[in-house]
TrEMBL record:
<dbReference type="GO" id="GO:0019346">
    <property type="term" value="P:transsulfuration"/>
</dbReference>
<dbReference type="InterPro" id="IPR015424">
    <property type="entry name" value="PyrdxlP-dep_Trfase"/>
</dbReference>
<feature type="modified residue" description="N6-(pyridoxal phosphate)lysine">
    <location>
        <position position="203"/>
    </location>
</feature>
<keyword id="KW-0663">Pyridoxal phosphate</keyword>
<dbReference type="InterPro" id="IPR054542">
    <property type="entry name" value="Cys_met_metab_PP"/>
</dbReference>
<dbReference type="InterPro" id="IPR015421">
    <property type="entry name" value="PyrdxlP-dep_Trfase_major"/>
</dbReference>
<comment type="similarity">
    <text>Belongs to the trans-sulfuration enzymes family.</text>
</comment>
<protein>
    <submittedName>
        <fullName>Cystathionine beta-lyase</fullName>
    </submittedName>
</protein>
<dbReference type="GO" id="GO:0019450">
    <property type="term" value="P:L-cysteine catabolic process to pyruvate"/>
</dbReference>
<dbReference type="InterPro" id="IPR000277">
    <property type="entry name" value="Cys/Met-Metab_PyrdxlP-dep_enz"/>
</dbReference>
<dbReference type="GO" id="GO:0047804">
    <property type="term" value="F:cysteine-S-conjugate beta-lyase activity"/>
</dbReference>
<keyword id="KW-0456">Lyase</keyword>
<dbReference type="InterPro" id="IPR006233">
    <property type="entry name" value="Cys_b_lyase_bac"/>
</dbReference>
<dbReference type="InterPro" id="IPR015422">
    <property type="entry name" value="PyrdxlP-dep_Trfase_small"/>
</dbReference>
<comment type="pathway">
    <text>Amino-acid biosynthesis; L-methionine biosynthesis via de novo pathway; L-homocysteine from L-cystathionine: step 1/1.</text>
</comment>
<dbReference type="GO" id="GO:0030170">
    <property type="term" value="F:pyridoxal phosphate binding"/>
</dbReference>
<dbReference type="Pfam" id="PF01053">
    <property type="entry name" value="Cys_Met_Meta_PP"/>
</dbReference>
Length: 389
C-alpha cells in the first residue's frame, strides 16, 4: 500500500512502502545480513544488490522516503553526514579541477575540501556565502563544482541558490548543497537549481540522538551513477539498524519539526530581549540580514540558531554553563533534548566573511521538545550566574 502521488509529502512519507516478499508490515523488516544467497549464477551477478553492504529492504524503503522528502529521483545512503558530503563532492570533481565552497560550511566538510581534496589533485577555494551571482567572478576554466550550505553552519547565512545556479549552469558547473538544516521539508535545493542535495540524517531525520546516517540525492541518472560508483569504490554503506531508526524518524519528521520551529522561534525572540545578548542569529527573524531570502526559498525553520553573548570574562561564562540543568553542552543537534555550545573554538572561517555586531562569544542553541517555559527558566538561571560572577 502506498499513498497517492497527489497526497501531501507528510502523508506520502508515512505510507511509502518498499517492495517486500510475502506479507506487508507497517514497519520494514531489518535484515542483519552480509551474505545474500541466490539459486542461480545469473541472479548472483544480476542487477539487483547482491551483498548486504549495498542495502536490503529497510534501505530501499528509506531511499524511497528520502526521494519523496527531497523531491529527488535517486538516493544513495551513507553512514553519516560528513561521509554524505564527501561522497557528493567527490562525485562531481576530479584531479586538475577546482571547487568553490562556502566559507560557512560545516567544519569537517571544509577540512575535507581543503586537505583531502588537495591530495586528490583538486584545488578548493572558499567564497562568501552571501556572494550570490557574484560567484561568477571566481569561476576558472577548471571550476567543476560549488558546495553550498544554507543556512551556514554555526553562523546561519542564507545563500541565494537560484542566483548561483543560474550563472553556474551556463558553465556546466555542478552544485552540491548541504540541506541538513532544511531537512527536505523546509528547503528543496534540487527544485531551486542544485544538482545534488545531501543531508546528515543523524540530525532531524533520525531525530532521537541515537543513530548516524547520511544521504545523497539527485534527479539526474548520470549523476546518480557517479555517486553510486564512488560509493562502491569507497565501500560506503549504512548499517541496517541505523537505516531502520532513520525510516522510523522520517514518519514523524513534520510533526517534530513544527514543534522545534515554534519553540525555537519563541526562545529566539525572548533572547532578543535579554540584556546579556548582543544579537540573535535566526533566519526566520526579521532582524536576520538574509530574512527576505529565507522567506522566499524556505517554508519553515527548526530549533537550531545562534546568539552572540555580550563580552563577559571567562569565569563568568564558566558559571553560566555550570548553572544550566536542561541545556546540555554537546555536539550534534536535531534530537528531543536542548543543547547549547560555545562556538568560537569551532569557527574555521577565512576571516573575511564572519563579523559580529559587538564583541562576545558565539553560542549555538538547539531547542528540543521540552516546555519553552522550562527552557527560559534554565537560561535565566544561567544568566543570573553570569551576572553574579
Amino acid at each position: 500500500m502506498s499513498a497517492n502521488d497527489d497526497a501531501a509529502p507528510e502523508t506520502r512519507l508515512i505510507h511509502t512502502r518498499a517492495e517486500r516478499l510475502g506479507r506487508v508490515t507497517v514497519n520494514p523488516p531489518v535484515e542483519r545480513a552480509s551474505t545474500v544467497l541466490f539459486r542461480t549464477e545469473a541472479a548472483l551477478y544480476g542487477p539487483k544488490p547482491t551483498y548486504g553492504r549495498m542495502g536490503l529492504t529497510v534501505h530501499r524503503e528509506l531511499e524511497a522516503a528520502l526521494c519523496i522528502l527531497e523531491g529527488a529521483r535517486h538516493t544513495r545512503l551513507a553512514s553519516n553526514g560528513l561521509q554524505a558530503c564527501a561522497l557528493g563532492i567527490a562525485s562531481v570533481v576530479e584531479a586538475g579541477g577546482h571547487l568553490l565552497f562556502t566559507d560557512s560550511a560545516y567544519g569537517p566538510t571544509a577540512r575535507f575540501c581543503e586537505k583531502r581534496l588537495k591530495t586528490m589533485g583538486v584545488e578548493a577555494e572558499r567564497f562568501n556565502p552571501r556572494i550570490g551571482a557574484g560567484i561568477e567572478r571566481l569561476f576558472r576554466e577548471n571550476t567543476q563544482a560549488i558546495l553550498l550550505e544554507s543556512p551556514g553552519s554555526l553562523t546561519f547565512e542564507i545563500s541565494d541558490l537560484p542566483a548561483i545556479a543560474e550563472v553556474a549552469k551556463k558553465r556546466g558547473i555542478r552544485i552540491v548543497c548541504d540541506n541538513t538544516w532544511g531537512a527536505g521539508l523546509h528547503y528543496q535545493p534540487l527544485a531551486l537549481g542544485a544538482d545534488i542535495s545531501v543531508q546528515a540524517l543523524t540530525k532531524y531525520v533520525v531525530g532521537h540522538s541515537d543513530a548516524f546516517g547520511g544521504a545523497v540525492m539527485t534527479n539526474e541518472l548520470s549523476l546518480a551513477n557517479k555517486v553510486a560508483n564512488c560509493s562502491e569504490d569507497w565501500g560506503i554503506g549504512l548499517a541496517p539498524d541505523d537505516a531502520y531508526l532513520a525510516i522510523r524518524g522520517i514518519r514523524s519528521l513534520k510533526t517534530r519539526l513544527k514543534a522545534h520551529e515554534a519553540a525555537g522561534l519563541e526562545l529566539a525572540r525572548w533572547l532578543e530581549t535579554r540584556p546579556e545578548v548582543a544579537s540573535v542569529i535566526h533566519p526566520a527573524l526579521p532582524s536576520h540580514p538574509d530574512h527576505a531570502l529565507w522567506k522566499r526559498d524556505f517554508t519553515g525553520a527548526n530549533g537550531l540558531f545562534a546568539f552572540v553573548l555580550k563580552d563577559y570574562p571567562a569565569e563568568a561564562k564558566k558559571r553560566f554553563f555550570e548553572a544550566l540543568s536542561l541545556f546540555g553542552m554537546g555536539f550534534s543537534w536535531g534530537g528531543f533534548e536542548s543543547l547549547i555550545i560555545p562556538c568560537d573554538d569551532q569557527l574555521t572561517r577565512s576571516g573575511t566573511c564572519w563579523t559580529r555586531q559587538k564583541p562576545g562569544e558565539l553560542m549555538r542553541v538547539h531547542v528540543g521538545l521540552e516546555a519553552v517555559s522550562d527552557l527560559k527558566a534554565d537560561l535565566e538561571a544561567g544568566f543570573a550566574a553570569l551576572n553574579a560572577a
